[in-house]
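Notebook entry, structure prediction.
Reason for the run: the old model in the group folder had no record of what sequence produced it. Starting over properly, with the input documented here first.
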Amino acid sequence: MATEVRIPTIMRNLTDGAKAVEGSGATLAELIDDLDRRHPGLGDKLVQDGKLRRFVNIYLNDEDVRFLGGIEAQVADGDTVTVLPAVAGGMR
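New structure, fully documented this time:
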């Protein structure tokens, strides 16, 4: 069994259009490394200088990983990880 990672539309060009992909790892960092091997470039969109990018939100089973240990959050088979880029802006 693996961890399902839900990919936002803006990053699906890195997953050949897949809405969700599978990966493995005991921590979020290991999972991201595995995803980057399978889908080159995805890791750079999620991590910078060994930390989660500021404007990318990642949820582990609907909980913000920043409150679960950040990039070192524990991940288990069967978990669901959701990647959501922060959205800002609008019209005045």
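Summary: Strands lie at 3-6, 20-23, 47-48, 51-52, 56-60, 63-64, 80-85.
The old model has been moved to the deprecated folder.
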